[in-house]
Design brief:
Strand content: under 5%
Number of strands: 2
């Protein structure tokens, strides 16, 4: 929503050809001096701005993934050496991220029978405990308020550092299903053998995009049906208290 508002304020109050804009191929060689000569050129000008938005997404993903592997080991209660190498992560953590036997006796990654998804995990999916693992909340807080705030959360303190944060920069004042689902994917990916944060794991074969969609469906439908377990996720203090009162702290 805020991105759309920013686009209207700074660039244009509409897309020249509506949603058809997103079906036009970006031409990086387009002559900026001729952008206003015809409709095709005008569309290219808008696509250029959209490309900057996409670039911002890639930068954010890259920065977050780097920080998670190299600076956020405390959030997962693991040694730094355990997160550095793919083989080590696979050996140490694959059971925690859903490496289970299926009905045929083969092993694969489950999207819901996952320890890191649950609080007090009992070995299988639990609707009342899903998305309540404290690690997920630490990752979320680290993203919007910084690592210091996430570490303080481990000691039961909900803090608002005084340095700049994503929460303040982007006016994040509430939690969304997407924010929680993304925190799950980030925590899951951090402990996986995959090196790059992308929709499909190259080493593990985990379909992160598909699983993200599944989590979004669980969260969204749970809210719509007022499911007690899902409502509890959104009412939990670290997820609920996103209003940054004073600024603060080297966000991921």
């Amino acid at each position: 929503m805020d991105v759309g508002r920013k686009f209207v304020i700074l660039y244009c109050p509409w897309l020249w050809i509506g949603t058809g804009t997103f079906r036009v191929c970006y031409d990086p060689q387009a002559n900026k001096a001729k952008w206003f000569e015809n409709l095709d050129n005008k569309v290219q000008e808008q696509i250029c701005e959209i490309q900057l938005f996409v670039k911002g997404m890639k930068v954010q993903c890259s920065n977050t993934s780097t920080h998670l592997h190299h600076q956020c080991t405390a959030l997962f209660n693991v040694a730094a050496s355990e997160l550095l190498l793919p083989d080590t992560r696979q050996e140490q953590f694959r059971e925690r991220i859903g490496w289970v036997y299926d009905s045929h006796g083969s092993r694969s990654y489950s999207s819901v029978d996952v320890e890191i998804l649950h609080k007090d995990y009992k070995g299988s999916f639990d609707y009342d405990m899903i998305f309540l693992n404290p690690i997920l909340m630490r990752v979320f807080v680290a993203i919007i308020r910084g690592l210091t705030a996430a570490i303080e959360l481990m000691n039961g303190v909900v803090s608002y550092p005084k340095m700049d944060t994503m929460a303040r920069k982007h006016g994040i004042r509430h939690t969304t299903p997407g924010a929680i689902a993304t925190s799950v994917i980030l925590a899951w990916w951090t402990l996986s053998a995959d090196q790059c944060l992308q929709s499909m794991g190259v080493i593990t074969g985990i379909n992160y995009a598909k699983d993200l969609d599944e989590y979004l469906e669980i969260l969204t439908k749970g809210l719509q049906k007022r499911k007690k377990g899902i409502i509890e996720v959104f009412c939990h203090v670290p997820f609920y208290s996103t209003r940054d009162k004073s600024g603060g702290g080297n966000s991921l």
